[in-house]
Amino acid sequence: MRHPREVLLGAQSTAASLPVCDHYSGVEVRMRKSLALQTEMSQEFGACVFDVTLDCEDGAPVGGEKDHANMVVALANQAQAAIKNVVNGVAPRVAARVHPVDHPAFEQDVTLIVGGAASSLCHLMIPKIETLADVDRAAQLVDFVAIRAGRTDALPLHVLIESPAAVHRAFEIAAHPRVQSISFGLMDFVSAHGGAIPASAMGLNTDPGQPALDQFSHPLVVRAKLDIASACHAHGKVPAHCVVTEFNDTAALLGAASRASRAFGYTRMWSIHPGQIRPILEAFAPLAQEIELATNIMLAAQKADWAPISFSGKLHDRASYRYFWQVLERAHQTGRHLPAEALAFFAA
Questions:
Q1: 315-347 pLDDT, tens per residue?
Q2: Rounded to whole angstroms, how far apart are CA atoms 109 and 105?
Q3: Quick count: other Cβ atoms within 10 Å of Cβ 307?
Q4: DSSP code of residue 69
Q5: Considering only Cβ atoms within 10 Å of each terminal Cβ, which end of the chain, N or C, has fewer?
Q6: Are residues 169 and 40 in the same domain?
Q7: What does the alpha-carbon distance between residue 109 and residue 71 come to, in Å, rounded to a whole number?
C-alpha cells in the first residue's frame, strides 16, 4: 500500500511538517532550561513537540554579540549530543535567531553560528525581512557558510515580517524557495504605524467590559495576520503566529492560540515562556473525535487504494483525504494519542 504522503501531495502544496510551537530564549540560564525541557518533553511524548530558538537579536547585549553567538553554538551542539543520549530516535530541534541583514552583527552571527553549528541547527530565523533582496542576501551567506562547514542539505530559513511594507510583499517573500516559514512581528508592526494603532493592539483584551481593540480585533492587525497566513498557504510555507505577552494568563493564551489556529489559519505559534508551550500544543492539536474520524477515513481510503469512498453516508475523495491526513500529521506533531493503525503511518 502506498503511503498518504506519496499519494496526496500533488494537487495542493503542502507545508513542511514543523512542530506547532517555536519557543524563544535569549538569556543563558533560560536557554539551558528550554533545552532541558525539550529533552524532558521529547521523552514524555516520544517526539520533539516544540522547537527551541536561541535568540541573538534580543538576547545579545550591545557589544557582546560575538560572545553571545559563540554561546549559541556551544548550546546547540551540546543539545544535539544530549538528547540523542536520552531519547532514542528523536532528533532535537534547535534554531537560532540572528540579527537583521542590515545590522553590523549579521555577518558575524551567520559566520559563527552556521559555521560552528551547521549540522546542529534545524533552521535559522532572520528578523526584519523587508524585501526579496533581504532574503537573497541572507540565503547566499547562509548557504556559503553552511557548505563550507560541511552541511550537505540546505539550512531552512524562517523569516520575520514586522512592517506594513513587508506585509505588502508577503506573497513575494513566501514564494522564495529558501523560505520555509514566515512569522508575524506584532509589536514592531504596531509601532511602525506611528501611533495610528493603539497600544492595546499589542495584547489581548481580557476584559469583556472594555471596548479596546486588541491583536485579534484591530482591523489593520487582523488584515496583516490574514495576509501572512494566506501567503504562506498559497506557497506551501508555514505561517507562525506572533507572541502573546500575557504569559501568566493561561486561559487567555489558550483562547488566543485557538483563534490563531482555527480562525486565522496559523499552523505554528511562538512561545516566550515555558508555561506557554503546553497550552499552545493543546490549542493547535486536533480534538479526539477529529483524530478518530481522520483515522477511520484514512484507513478506508488506503484500503480502496485512494479511490473515492462513501463513509457514514458522505462522499470522500483525495481532496478530503488530504485534509484528514493533515489532521493526523498535526496530531502527531502535538503529541496526541493516536490509534495504533494511525501511528503506523509515522513508524517509518
A1: 999 899 999 998 998 898 888 888 888 888 887
A2: 6
A3: 9
A4: H
A5: C
A6: yes
A7: 11
The answer to whether residue 12 scores a pLDDT higher than 90 is no
Assess whether pLDDT exceeds 60 at residue 15: no
Residue with cell 493516536: 338
pLDDT at residue 67 is higher than 50: yes
One-letter amino acid at 174 equals A
* Whether residue 48 is found in the same domain as residue 195: yes
Q: What is the CATH number of the domain that holds 260?
A: 3.20.20.60
pLDDT bracket for residue 135 (50, 70, 90) = very high
Nearest residue to 220 (alpha-carbon basis) of 259, 249, 189, 177: 189
- C-alpha distances (whole Å) from 279 to each of 22, 23, 46, 136, 251 are 13, 12, 18, 36, 8
pLDDT at position 13 is 47
- pTM of the entire structure? 0.91
Residue 208 has pLDDT above 70, yes or no: yes
Q: In total, how many domains does the chain have?
A: 2
Q: Work out the angle at residue 317's Cα, subtended by the Cα atoms of residues 313 and 323, and round it to the nearest 5 degrees.
A: 100
Cα→Cα distances 166→127, 132, 161, 236, Å = 11, 10, 6, 19
Same structural domain, 41 and 158: yes
**What's the whole-number mean pLDDT along residues 80-90?**
66
Q: 17: which 3 cell numbers?
A: 511538517
What proportions of the chain, in percent to the nearest 5, are helix, strand and coil? 50, 15, 35
